[in-house]
Amino acid sequence: MDASEPPGRLKTRVLFVCTGNICRSAFAEVAARSLFDGGRFAFSSAGTHAVRGDAATPRMQIAASEHELDLSTHRATPLDAPDQPDVVFGMEQRHLNAARAQFPDLDASHIRLLDHPNAIVDPYGLDMRSYRTTARHIESALTALDLASFR
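Request: output the structure for the sequence above.
Response:
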């Protein structure tokens, strides 16, 4: 816990969701950790169709390294595995629908697109340029977030 946090105050649990948890949400998780105070937030990611244990794609690992981020140890997590989050950011509307079904007690206003109202395009299977574009889009959306509003 951060020394400036009041006693007993838990970290805000932020979950990023995409399809396979090997591209977009994986990148969002590591990028958020580098951008935001780790003492106030706990970041994780999951996929609606993730195969537990899959590594981030090689191209997303390269895109991450170009942003001075490391995805080499990332392993995919299915959406039904994470603990109850305080806020969920999906990459597409279908990810929000799955998160609402998985976390029915979470306030609907705390489940939203990372770059509302825009979806973040899935680069899976595309060229390196597409991965770089997606990484920049995610980083831009993260820098625009006001995470304090979810505390």
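The chain has one domain: 12-150.
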